[in-house]
Amino acid sequence: MSTIERPPIRTEPPKTSAVTALVRELRPKQWTKNLLVFAGLIFSYNLRESGAIWKTVAAFMIFCAVSSASYVINDLADLEQDRQHPRKRLRPIACGAISEGAGWAIAAVLLLMSLPTAWVLSPMFFGVVTTYFVIVQLYSFHLKHVVLLDVFSIAAGFVLRAVAGAVVIPVRLSAWLLLCTMLASLFLALAKRRHELVLLEDGAASHRRILDEYSTLFLDQMIVTVTSATVIAYSIYTFSAGTLPDDQSMMLTI
Question: What is the pTM of this model?
Fold first, then answer.
């Protein structure tokens, strides 16, 4: 019987140009998470308002810059641990493609460009972006090691993206939609923890220390609870939110 061979893990740092290393460090693939900023624009039916569209696009770009700065700071904080990891050691800062000094400079430039622009767009939007950045830093340095607070921190980041998209226009965002966003984000975070726990088995704690505090039974119970709550909350949202059409056509999406 033939066996499936896994691709070998690279052990040598990739040879890349400075531009390629910079792009890899900024994690553009993760920017898709920031698309939640468009929730306020879409659910408020302002897609024909050019001013609202441009403000939302600017808010999306600001979140991309702030989130990239957070990734850089996290890589700098976890530098020694990443250098001992078979895959993370290939990250630009860990492998030396980007120096520590350059990393701090990149993070500073991203924040200096994005945060003042956020203030110009809207002081309230600036407050939401700043809160998001603080929560991400708390997660990176402490909360990711605290059971349950780690997944709630991840979920809070998604909720703040949705809130930011609403305050920058500005429009009123339904509390039910925020609740649905929080619950759906909790589901994703819990599912990720379960996937890591099952995939890594006995080596889970060495990969992520907090996994030692979780069990598949506990995570399964949490996932079932959160999934049920998400369906109920979204169902109530579709026929009770004041920001939706009066014909209750959104109920068809349940």
Answer: 0.84
Confidence of residue 182 (pLDDT cuts 50, 70, 90): very high
Chain position carrying tokens 């390629």: 20
Q: Select 19-173's CATH number: 1.10.3720.10, 1.10.357.140, 2.60.40.1180, 3.30.450.20.
A: 1.10.357.140
Sign of CA dihedral 67, 69, 73, 75: positive
The answer, yes or no, to whether residue 2 has pLDDT greater than 50, is: no
Check pLDDT > 90 for residue 157.
yes
Instruction: Kindly write down the DSSP assignment for every residue of 99-117, as one continuous string.
Output: -HHHHHHHHHHHHHHHHHH
Q: Which of 169, 147, 130, 139 is nearest to 39 (CA)?
A: 169
Q: How many CB atoms sit inside 10 A of residue 212's CB?
A: 12
